[in-house]
Amino acid sequence: MVSEIKVKICGLRDAAHVAAAAKAGAAYVGFNFFSKSPRYISVDDARSLAVDVPLGIAKVALTVNADNAFLDDIVGRVPLDMLQLHGSESVERVAEIRARYGLPVMKVIGVADEGDLAAISEFSKIADQLLIDAKPPKEAELPGGNGLSFDWRLIAGQRWSVPWMLAGGLTPLNVAEAISMTGAKQVDVASGVETAPGVKDERLIADFIKAARGEKT
Ligand SMILES: O=C(O)c1ccccc1N[C@@H]1O[C@H](COP(=O)(O)O)[C@@H](O)[C@H]1O
């Protein structure tokens, strides 16, 4: 049976890892434009990688509370298929970005407890997709990419009106369980396919995608 699970590999910084993600069957590749991240990539380098991404794989720009000048630069120079908003962007800001660039927008919602679920419904009215990630702890330096999971039971059996991805602490070892518990049809990973912060591993990328599809690794 062909699995319908779509995988996003986020924080790619070199051609070999983009190629590994494509070969393994990734549906999305993510470029991280948050300067404090170990996965940060410059606009020039992202452009070099993006032009060679095979057709059919969506190229996603991850930004955090980016202003229009920065988004203008990214969108103007990198061929992109989606914008991932991983900061504290309001509903109004999401709507503004969506209208200004004409690209699908994926808003990230951090989840730690039941109280965070209302935001999922709220943003599903305006975003094209949602990414449901672990809410970063207060002391975390990064708003994502911390390798932390949330309690997947919080969203088990929930349905929303737009497509969504599950993220947060996913690895080749736990992604199948995460999918089975939440019913996710799309998953996103950054640190779980790395050997050190920002250092992707071709084998882990392939293992993650296989595991997400329920194949033996
Ligand atoms: O990866 C980062 O460094 C990052 C920085 C700032 C915002 C978001 C970031 N990553 C996103 O978070 C999810 C989950 O990461 P992880 O798998 O738990 O490491 C990741 O897929 C990115 O979309």
TrEMBL record:
Matching InterPro entries: Aldolase_TIM (IPR013785), PRAI_dom (IPR001240), RibuloseP-bd_barrel (IPR011060), TrpF_fam (IPR044643)
UniProt gene name: trpF
Keyword entries, A-Z: Amino-acid biosynthesis, Aromatic amino acid biosynthesis, Isomerase, Tryptophan biosynthesis
Uppermost EC category: isomerase
Pathway assigned in UniProt: Amino-acid biosynthesis; L-tryptophan biosynthesis; L-tryptophan from chorismate: step 3/5
The protein's name in its UniProt record: N-(5'-phosphoribosyl)anthranilate isomerase
EC number: 5.3.1.24
N-(5'phosphoribosyl) anthranilate isomerase (PRAI) domain ranges (all copies): 7-210
Molecular function terms from GO: phosphoribosylanthranilate isomerase activity
